[in-house]
Amino acid sequence: MPVVVLVVVVVVVVVVLVMVMVVVVVVVIGVVVVVVLEVIEIVVVVVVVVLMVVVLRVVVVVVLEVIEIVVVVVVV
Predict the structure, then answer these.
(1) Do the domain assignments include residue 60?
(2) How far apart are CA 74 and CA 67, in angstroms?
(3) Could you tell me the residue range of the domain that residue 53 belongs to?
(4) Is the pTM of this model over 0.70?
């Protein structure tokens, strides 16, 4: 009888430990996924801001060139 109780206790402890390990692994995977998604979001925002700055610079240069051409044509 004591051997059966010992086996049952060992089996229960092993099952509980396995369940705890599975929960920990799922939580860790969830945290990693959230962190990766946040990093991707930050990178996308930075890339969009850089592209906007580059486009804005190009637009400013083009507008200045057009103004220069108009001024030269009007003066001449």
Answers:
(1) yes
(2) 10
(3) 45-76
(4) no
